[in-house]
Write a structure and sequence with these properties.
Elements: H1 9-20, H2 27-39, H3 46-58, H4 65-74, H5 81-93, H6 97-109, H7 116-128, H8 132-146
Length: about 150
């Protein structure tokens, strides 16, 4: 891939999608491919990340997205606010509370706290999945973090 003929963004997206839908998620391969794309100056746009995450949804393992997001962070990329919003909604609306909590903790640990839209999407997702108790817990957690004295 170091020659004059560089793959298109569509090819990169397609390859990353194929990696995540294999029987066994190979994070090493995903990370290597991602680093190669970064090396040839193809940035991981929200549309690419969204396509990869939709692949997880298509095979029913969206909860695995946290593993890929950790690899992305290790490669120096940051999940945008819009993607945080989509991810929190998808996880919470699919009744994947543990994965949603892990995502929130991962974002906070990386210094990339969720904004109000992502918190609202998290709460809305819990409501869509009829987990009102979880939605209330999120409101309390967010309220206690944002409370000003």
């Amino acid at each position: 891939m170091a020659g004059a003929n560089k793959p298109s963004v569509l090819c990169c997206t397609s390859l990353l999608k194929k990696i995540v839908v294999r029987k066994e998620l190979d994070l090493g391969l995903f990370s290597r491919v991602l680093r190669i794309f970064i090396g040839i100056e193809i940035t991981l746009a929200d549309s690419m990340l969204d396509a990869v995450l939709k692949s997880f949804s298509s095979i029913g393992i969206f909860g695995e997205c946290n593993k890929v997001l950790k690899e992305i962070k290790q490669d120096g990329l940051v999940v945008s606010s819009d993607m945080q919003t989509k991810i929190t909604f998808r996880l919470s609306s699919a009744c994947q509370k543990d994965e949603a909590d892990e995502f929130v903790e991962h974002m906070e640990a990386s210094g990339n706290n969720l904004d109000y839209k992502a918190w609202a999407s998290l709460i809305q997702g819990h409501c869509v999945s009829r987990n009102v108790e979880e939605a209330l817990d999120c409101i309390q957690k967010n309220g206690s973090k944002r409370r000003r004295f």
